[in-house]
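Worked Example 4.2. Consider the chain below.
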Amino acid sequence: MDLPIHIFVALAFIGWFSGLMGAVLLVHHRVLIGDVLSHSVLAGVAFVFLLFLEVSFPLLIAGAIASTLLAALLIEFIKNRTPLKEDVVLGIVLAFMFAIGIAFLAVSQKIPSIEKAMLNTLLLGEVSAILPNEVPYMVIASIVGSLVIWLLYKGWFFTGFDPVFGQTQQVPINRLRKILLFIVASGILLTAYISGVVLAVGLLIAPALIGRFFSTRLYSTLLLSGLSGAVLAVLGGIVSAKVEGLSTGPLIIFSAGLIGLLTILFSPHYGIVLHRIRYVLFKWSRGQENILRAAYKVLERTGNTSYAFSLEELKQACDDPPPSWTILLKVLEMKGFVKQSGNKWLLTPQGLEKAKRLTRLHRLLELYLSEIVKIAPEKVHSYAESLEHIITPEVEQRLYELLRDKQYDPHKKPVPWNGSG
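Applying the procedure from the previous section yields the following structure tokens:
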């Protein structure tokens, strides 16, 4: 079955708006409020049906806004007047409002009407139930809600990341938070329309997650979340059209969740897999530097830069053992920093300069921590051991300029200034 064009349009606009709402909720750490409000939708629309015995989109919007605003007010009322934590309050309101919705839905089943089928689709979502005459309402509501979110962009930045500083800049933090609740309360029906009230939060979280994992700025996070929401909604609609016998909502959220999972694993900024790869590479790079610095300590002790040192001497001189001595010595040999001589090793001229620079940086860091930061000399070694592997060339050069007149570190070991670097 192919989806009609009006359904594609509805999915794209609703998905875009859902992504924006989810992104703003995410930066405010209030995503679960979207779940509470989506479950509250059912109570409003079922009540409207019982009241008017018909289901039209304007009436649905009115009922949904009324019930979600009631839920939002209950959340704020209970949270501000009781010692309960927010997660407890959210659980109470969710259960209460959803129970009312289920009760109204059960009552509506006893009333003969061909239109009450729409209420059942709100539980799990069904895009095929979207009528062409409803799409203009959905598009207009999505556009208006999106414009409000974009116009208040700077406000979301302060309320989400630094509300204290925002208050000093006379940003109306509390008012903006209430506006956020109103936006979500007004727009959650659209999300519930295609994904169902039970799973609507998935269409808020998945796009926001993608936007957050692929961006480090709020502006681009909002943009990516909106685009991701549109793509995920349309993709889920296509999948649901190909799989018969299943409700649209679970298929949309399954598709969104699958892509969200891949994002968590492989996104460039925060992806688990790439983060692990970077960590392993850093660990092996740090191991190489520790070997070179240990080698310099051995040469420094012997006073002979051509001294061939054994693996046992390296191990004794190294304070932070590498993941693998054998493999990393071979890597250093391939890089031209060391060469093997029988069962011993020698530093090449290139390796000697590299080892000298690492030792100089370590001892300058100890000096800086001891003399500038005023950390006790017996504690600076471990701090310098951690910092020396992440210092940028600019910071390294600044250390050289700041401490270039120093000849010895806090432990009375000479700073190897001669040579390059």
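The chain has a mean pLDDT of 85. The chain has 18 helices and two strands. Compare this with Example 4.1 before moving on.
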